[in-house]
Specification:
Shape of chain D: globular
Strand order of the largest sheet of chain D: 1-2
Number of strands of chain D: 2
Chains: A mainly alpha (777), B mainly alpha (192), C mainly alpha (98), D mainly alpha (509)
Oligomer: heterotetramer
Distance between the termini of chain D: 40 Å
Low-confidence stretches of chain D: none
Mean pLDDT of chain A: 73
Strand order of the largest sheet of chain A: 1-2
Largest interface: B-C, 93 and 71 residues
Shape of chain A: globular
Order of helices and strands of chain D: HHEEHHHHHHHHHHHHHHHHHH
Mean pLDDT of chain D: 86
Largest sheet of chain A: 2 strands, antiparallel
Helix content of chain D: over 70%
Largest sheet of chain D: 2 strands, antiparallel
Number of helices of chain A: 32
Number of domains of chain D: 1
């Protein structure tokens, strides 16, 4: 429990590390990296301990709720809800949430005994509140009544202190603190882990860089900001963390700011995010007032989930917030900054632009899920904005990845596409699936990026896989194998982690065969499957260019050192196995033991009044097989094309199945294959579609961004020259000109003639006096 | 000196009683008409020396007005200081700057219309305010009566009491100011 | 006699003075216009002193004294300007021009 | 001790700098070092007194005036010599007390041409007295006197020590502000005659809160104040003096102008215009709001068109003060708190930016953005400080600027009940848009000046050195405050909140 109430130590430690590196880093033997690595190491250990503590905590809660946590059957247990719900917030420190406080207050008056187990560990803060059984604050009660889901409520541990007072004394306290529940704990672990590995990796990768110390300082600051964001107790705090990670991203993308493209990319990232931040600010402000002047996430969530906030307001707020999500998480139409952000050092791309910061948007939606859930009417509908944006992004992002030569850009578009998967998942109500995919994606995508970094390390800092890579399989075996595993996970190959998480997302849409999750999102499902296919395909292409064929670059590449390969191995291993953290209950006839399945769901997903009741899709065997087949096809086609393209056509295959026959027909005739692949698929994808997409990307979207920038400059110039200098100044000057026959308007005020000032002064005084004389009469 | 002027102030004396209001008014309006005319000439004449002479007329008129208002001492001072010192200073200034002694066409700038407008506007506003505020209030000289009683029916003594009593410090400050101005003028005008 | 007849006379003198300040190019003439303004104020002070006591007269005396000082300094400045520029034309004084 | 502070504290804080200036008059001009020491000692003594006051301030009662000095001054018009501070004046006074000594330290080896530290520093001290007095005065006439005292030293600073266009700029500054002051004075007199008590005592006027004054009259009188204060702020159509004044003023002048002088206008709105004339305020609030938002967008657009670094920063002031005015226009506690915070934050941040611009000018002898570049290579620390300040200026959370901007936008969502909610919500969105533009021009500035490599004319220029000692001393407190206030906004919010609540209640009633 101590760990749950003292999570603030982690961001504080990282912030301290930032300052320490800046202050003394350059004088240390390893230029400050040791501070950063040590600090982030401690943080990771703390995060693990926190997670363990949370695990313990959840189990305790489960028992006290007299409810076996394993029961997943949808059984509206109203009595059950009443039983444990008042205690669901017993770990919320007083003052952190007005709604909870009110509930506590009323509970107290009725039943003062209400002892509870949650804080027997003797921590000084979260105790002392004796929530009554009935907790009859209207909102809470309503929420709990609706709460039909089976397992026990997990109790968020919330601590806070007053940040500042604003407004009348009774209703104005704005708090800052930590809110620890499954979601934040798991995110802490992800951030801690990836950050630690990236730190270690960086000590080798950026070794000898001109701004080595600054680099580590900003890594520390980024980790601190991200943890601050993750642990946020209030939405205001989230805004702060959100912007701080943005500024770290700015600093790190522009790390090599001597070159203009890098600083342009940094600016583009920051400005695009700022555009989304309009939505963030406005959305958060709406929620603040909607929740009765409270920034507390708990308040907002409870009220949103219980209908305490009108649907219209929630809709507006969620649409506003969606803009922020689109910018930060690279969703379509605001995604253009993310590929450019690859101008930063590769470890930064792995940490910030793949694994952690870009999922801040996902995290935001997940954190304020009731707002989106109710605002967008996710349950029971078949289309909503989140799902549409996510699905479009998933598909188009994947398509764009085909035409890239730069391996990091492939991965960047892949990230965009995968983030689209997560957003869609949230949009269709598959909350857990989204979080789970976030988790697995962080592992394998970080691995891929770091692997790309390792290759460029070998290949003279080039990322152009088409021209400078090739045949690295033999030279860099460790990089190769880790890359392969991570690619498999990304493509969703059984039984790697990506398979499980992607499949859960697909199942959450409802399938063509049966209904599942919160609705029937068939269109999105189709788009995601196309996205999944493309993912497998472009990754295979990437592997071909990187590892097979002959080395096309200059010099002799070599395998990277242990500080690079060890993180790769760790990440690849995790990428392979973390999928088992959230095994479905059963796959067809096979039942998994209780200790294995749905762990993630149980410990991460919040249950209670501050979270909507979402339903979970069952593992759907036909769908899983289908998606696996699609992924297989995605691997197969490029495999045939790239790996086998030069060989004679494979005849036997055509007799085995129709799909292969079709593939064979393609292969028999090379031109036909070329036609199919180059002209029809690649051609279409690479030609009209991708070019259109790229064109749209470069011309329209970038054009709009650039155009707005340029337009603003032009407008600014015009306004400045014509209005500021002429009209406004002119108006001032005109006052002195009224009776003058000649003389330019501008020249007049500049005359410096005292008598004109005198005239002006007396006239003004007389006029004003006149006004007063008339008015006061 | 003051005594010599006593006959002149009969007009003012009489103002307390209604019987002499009419002659006082007659004198006032004649004087006022002269003053306005002279003042306009001051700001419109194209001979700089004439302007100074017209100014003398205005300043004398102001002095007469003071007499009408039973402020003989101020009237005397007005005549002495203005006519005796200031106008002479002006004439010195005119000579020293070698201004054209005859007519000159370039005494005004091109802002006459705005000047007229501002002037008329000011007059209108002030007049409107005055008329609405004070209407037909008559002069009663009540305030003088009180202070005269203290000073033995002598207005000049009363004034002296006022200056060297409550207003002593401002008076001293004023003398310092005059000295400072004197020094300042010397510093400015001296040839280095 | 009415209070207003003095006040109105003063107002007219004041406005004429302002007009002079605005239109006159010659420094000495501007100073004269300022004297008009000061005198109109003095008339006001004296007129009101019939209501409010001798303070007004004292003030009028002070104003006269200050006016004397002002004219002294003012003329010195005009003289200085003349010496430097051979002109007392205020229009030519565009030192303040940007 | 407490008695001494209560009776003399404010008087000493206000007039110690003036005393210093008088002492400097007596010291011959050649002893430049002594002049610097005297100036520093005088402003330092004032700062020490100020710290004592701040330490003894009763924060539980921050809504009430403390350390009250109430002496008879001009009994004839019922105007008293009344000084006092409450939660709103205190942060601004502290800001002044901090900035002026730092400016003097900065001046140690940065006396602008044509030299003469004696006059220069004396003017700064007189300026300080005027500024502190304005924040402390609780009598309208006294307020006006202090308000005007500020004008002259600034006029001379720009006109004598300024850039090539200094005469034009100083005259423009003077005429503009003078014009506003005239109207403001008329409004003050109107208040005097219209109020029941016929007094200039601001405490009584606050209490009366526009009682007995008809609505139309309130609107007119408020209009006069609006001109006076609005020009000083400066609000959108009246801002054109600002870029000129800033661009031409010497660094120290710009810093004081940005850090404190502009706040006199906004402070006037909060302290005088809103509580004295609630109905007038309510009538004017939408207009102020709209103008404020126009200022935000317009200032940002103006910035984008600038080629001169200092002028750009000056234009950004228009945008930032727009946020402050938007906060005031909402007539809510939140908005007024935000406004006061915004004033302090803007003072620190823009003050710092002008300091940096001055130092850049010292080194490069130009501020043309095109010619700069690679500051991070030539003078890395200076470049990083510029980076921090631009980040703070664009309202990055975690730095002071955010707490001026965000709460102002927030307050606009729900303005005082009698105001048009829809209008203010539109304003909110537009203001939020302004933050994007702000990021645009500031990052653009930062990219063009700090990133990249230095242009050839400045490579290996021996004059381009990193931050000097006097600069470090002058800047460190401000930088630290920018960061600390960013994370602990309660330092200011908790002080201003009680007083702001009173004003909001008075104005919104």
């Amino acid at each position: 429990m101590w760990f749950l109430t003292h999570t603030w130590i982690m961001p504080a430690l990282m912030a301290l590390s930032f300052l320490a590196i800046l202050a003394v880093g350059k004088r240390l033997p390893k230029k400050g990296s040791e501070i950063g690595v040590a600090a982030v190491g401690i943080c990771f250990v703390l995060a693990l301990l926190t997670a363990g503590s949370w695990w313990q905590h959840t189990n305790d809660t489960g028992e006290s709720g007299e409810h076996a946590s394993g029961v997943l059957a949808v059984a509206p247990g109203a009595g059950d809800a009443e039983e444990h719900d008042p205690e669901a917030f017993s770990d919320v420190e007083q003052g952190c949430s007005r709604v909870v406080d009110e509930a506590d207050h009323e509970g107290n008056s009725e039943k003062a005994e209400a002892d509870h187990e949650g804080d027997t560990e003797g921590e000084e803060h979260s105790s002392g509140i004796a929530p009554g059984e009935s907790a009859s604050a209207e909102s809470t009660a309503v929420a709990t009544a609706e709460e039909g889901e089976g397992h026990a409520a997990t109790k968020p541990v919330v601590r806070c202190f007053t940040w500042f007072d604003n407004g009348p004394a009774d209703s104005s306290t704005i708090t800052v603190g930590t809110m620890v529940d499954g979601q934040s704990v798991f995110m802490l672990v992800v951030v801690g882990l990836i950050s630690l590995l990236v730190h270690i990796y960086s000590t080798d990768y950026v070794n000898g860089d001109r701004r080595y110390t600054h680099y580590f300082a900003f890594l520390s600051l980024f980790t601190a900001s991200m943890m601050f964001f993750v642990l946020a107790q209030s939405t205001l705090q989230m805004i702060v963390g959100w912007e701080l990670v943005g500024v770290c991203s700015f600093a790190l993308i522009g790390h090599w700011w001597e070159e203009k493209p890098n600083s342009n990319a940094a600016l583009k990232a920051f400005l695009t995010n700022r555009v989304g931040d309009i939505g963030l600010l406005v959305g958060m402000i709406i929620l603040y007032f909607a929740a009765g002047r409270s920034f507390s996430i708990l308040d907002i969530n409870i009220l949103a989930a219980s209908g305490g906030i009108s649907h219209g307001l929630l809709l507006v707020a969620s649409v506003c917030l969606l803009a922020a999500v689109m910018s930060k998480s690279g969703q379509f139409i605001l995604h253009t900054w993310l590929p450019d952000a690859m101008a930063g050092p590769t470890p930064v791309s792995a940490l910030i632009h793949a694994a952690t910061m870009v999922v801040a948007g996902i995290y935001l939606v997940a954190r304020l899920y009731p707002v989106f859930f109710e605002g967008l009417s996710i349950a029971g509908s078949s289309v909503n904005l989140l799902a549409v944006v996510g699905a479009v992004t998933a598909m188009f992002g994947a398509l764009l990845a085909f035409v890239q030569k730069d391996v990091k850009k492939v991965l960047a578009y892949s990230t965009i596409s995968q983030l689209g998967f997560m957003v869609t998942a949230l949009g269709v109500g598959a909350w857990t699936a989204a979080m789970f995919h976030l988790f697995t994606h962080a592992m394998f995508k970080a691995c891929l990026f770091l692997g790309a970094g390792s290759m460029s390390h070998a290949a003279h800092h080039s990322f152009n896989m088409v021209d400078d890579y090739g045949g690295l399989r033999k030279i860099m075996p460790r990089t190769f194998w880790t890359f392969i595993i991570a690619t498999g996970a990304l493509a969703g190959i059984f039984p790697l982690s990506g398979f499980w998480s992607k499949d859960e997302i697909l199942a959450g849409h409802g399938t063509f065969f049966s209904e599942g999750g919160n609705g029937t999102y068939h269109v999105m499902l189709a788009m995601l499957i196309i996205g999944a296919f493309c993912t497998a395909a472009y990754m295979t292409r990437t592997i071909w260019y990187c590892f097979y064929g002959e080395y096309r670059g200059v010099g002799t590449p070599h395998e990277s050192g242990p500080r690079i390969t060890v993180p790769l191995i760790i990440l690849a291993t995790l990428g392979a196995v973390v999928g088992f953290l959230n095994l479905p209950k059963s796959i067809g006839p096979i039942n998994f033991p209780e200790s294995l399945h749905t762990q993630f769901e149980q410990f991460v997903e919040p249950v209670g009044a501050y979270f909507p009741s979402i339903s979970h899709a069952e593992f759907n065997v036909p769908l899983a097989l289908f998606s696996l087949a699609v992924a297989g096809l995605g691997v197969l086609l490029p495999y045939l094309y790239y790996f086998k393209g030069g060989l004679a056509p494979i005849r036997d295959l055509s007799e085995r199945n129709a799909l292969a026959r079709w593939g064979k027909n393609v292969l028999v005739n090379k031109y036909y294959f070329d036609w199919l692949y180059t002209d029809v698929i690649t051609g279409f994808v690479k030609g009209p579609l991708a070019r259109a997409a790229n064109w749209f990307n470069a011309k329209v979207l970038d054009g709009i961004v650039d155009g707005v920038g340029a337009g603003a400059v032009v407008t600014g110039q015009w306004v400045y020259e014509n209005i500021d200098q002429e009209v406004v100044d002119g108006a001032v000057n005109a006052a002195g000109t009224t009776a003058t026959e000649t003389g330019g308007v501008l020249r007049y005020l500049q005359s410096g003639r005292i008598q004109q000032y005198a005239a002006l002064f007396f006239a003004a005084a007389a006029l004003l006096a006149g006004v007063f004389v008339v008015a006061t009469g | 000196m003051i005594a010599a002027l006593a006959p002149l102030s009969f007009l003012a004396q009489s103002a307390t009683g209604n019987s002499f209001d009419v002659p006082a008014n007659v004198v006032f309006y004649i004087v006022a008409a002269f003053m306005v005319f002279a003042a306009i000439r001051v700001v419109t004449t194209d001979n700089i020396v004439h302007a100074a002479l017209w100014l003398i007329l205005v300043l004398s008129g102001v002095g007469l007005n003071f007499l009408l208002l039973q402020a003989e001492f101020v009237a005397i001072t007005q005549i002495l200081v203005y006519l005796g010192a200031i106008v002479v200073l002006f004439l010195f200034g005119i000579m020293l700057t070698r201004a054209p002694l005859g007519r000159a066409d370039d005494l005004d700038n091109n802002m006459r219309p705005i000047g007229v407008a501002v002037g008329l506007l000011l007059t209108a506003v002030i007049a409107f305010a005055l008329i609405r505020t004070f209407g037909n209030d008559s002069l009663t000289f009540e305030a003088y009566a009180g202070s005269q009683a203290v000073a033995g029916n002598n207005r000049t003594t009363a004034l002296a009491n006022e200056i060297f009593g409550p207003q002593l410090i401002p008076f001293e400050v004023l003398s310092v100011l005059l000295t400072a101005a004197l020094i300042g003028a010397i510093v400015l005008a001296r040839r280095d | 006699m009415l209070l207003n007849q003095f006040l109105l006379l003063a107002a007219i003198l004041f406005s004429i003075g302002v007009y002079g300040v605005i239109v006159r190019r010659n420094g000495v003439l501007v100073l004269m216009s300022i004297e008009l303004i000061l005198n109109s104020v003095n008339i006001n002070l004296i007129a009101f002193s019939t209501y409010h006591g001798l303070g007004g007269q004292v003030f009028a005396l002070f104003v006269i004294a200050v006016a004397a000082a002002e004219v002294g300094v003012g003329l010195a400045i005009v003289l200085l300007i003349y010496r430097n520029r051979r002109s007392v034309d205020i229009d030519a004084l565009d030192e303040l021009k940007g | 001790m407490t008695d001494f502070l209560t009776d003399w504290g404010l008087i000493l804080v206000t007039f110690l700098p003036l005393a210093g200036a008088l002492v400097m008059m007596a010291v011959p001009r050649e002893l430049t070092e002594s002049h610097k020491v005297i100036a520093l000692v005088a402003s330092g003594a004032s700062l020490v007194m100020g710290i004592l006051l701040i330490a003894n301030f009763d924060y539980d009662d921050a809504g009430a005036l403390q350390f009250l000095v109430d002496k008879e001054w001009i009994p004839l018009i019922n105007s008293g010599f009344i000084l006092g501070v409450d939660g709103i004046s205190l942060p601004l006074m502290a800001l002044t007390l901090l900035v002026v000594p730092l400016v003097i330290i900065y001046s140690w080896n940065h006396i602008p041409s044509p030299g003469n530290p004696k006059a220069f520093l004396a003017l700064i001290l007189i300026l300080e007295t005027g500024m502190i007095g304005t924040f402390a005065a609780q009598d309208l006439i006294l307020f006006f006197v202090f308000f005007e005292i500020v004008l002259l030293p600034m006029y001379f600073m720009i006109g004598v020590w300024g850039g090539p266009e200094r005469k034009y700029a100083s005259i423009k500054f003077f005429v503009y502000t003078m014009f506003g002051s005239a109207l403001m004075l008329v409004s003050f007199l109107a208040l005097y005659f219209l109020s029941r008590e016929q007094t200039f005592d601001m405490r009584i006027l606050t209490e009366l809160g526009g009682l007995d004054i008809a609505r139309t009259t309130q609107i007119l009188v408020f209009g006069g104040m609006f001109m006076g204060f609005g020009i000083k702020v400066p609000m959108f159509p009246f801002h054109t003096w600002l870029p000129d004044a800033h661009t031409q003023a010497p660094t120290q002048g710009s810093v004081i102008l940005a850090a404190v002088l502009l706040k006199l206008g906004t402070y006037g709105f909060v302290r005088i215009a809103l509580p004295f004339l609630p109905e007038g305020a309510q009538w004017w609030a939408p207009i102020i709001g709209v103008l404020a938002v126009i200022g935000i967008i317009y200032g940002a657009l103006g910035c984008l068109a600038q080629t001169d670094m200092k002028r750009l920063i000056a234009f950004s002031s228009v945008a930032h003060m727009g946020f402050v005015m938007l906060g005031i226009a909402t007539l809510t506690e939140f908005g007024i708190n935000a406004a006061v915070f915004g004033m302090v934050a803007h003072g620190l941040i823009t003050g710092m930016l002008f300091f940096i611009a001055g130092s850049v000018k010292d080194r490069y002898h130009t501020l043309e953005i095109k010619r700069l570049g690679g500051l991070l290579i030539s003078a890395p620390r200076l470049g990083w400080i510029l980076g921090l300040c631009t980040m703070a200026s664009l309202g990055l959370p975690g730095l002071a600027g955010f707490w001026g901007e965000f709460p102002a936008i927030l307050a606009a969502y729900e303005p005082a009940p009698m105001l048009n909610q829809t209008l203010f919500r539109v304003l909110m969105v537009v203001a939020a848009l302004g933050t994007v533009l702000a990021a645009g021009y500031l990052l653009w500035l930062f990219q063009r000046t700090a990133f990249g490599t230095p242009s050839e004319e400045f490579v290996d220029d021996p004059e381009i050195v990193d931050v000097k000692m006097s600069e470090w001393i002058a800047w460190t407190p401000m930088i630290v405050l920018i960061v600390v206030l960013g994370f602990l906004p309660s330092i200011i919010f908790d002080v201003t909140n009680p007083a702001a609540t009173l004003i909001a209640v008075a104005a919104g009633a």
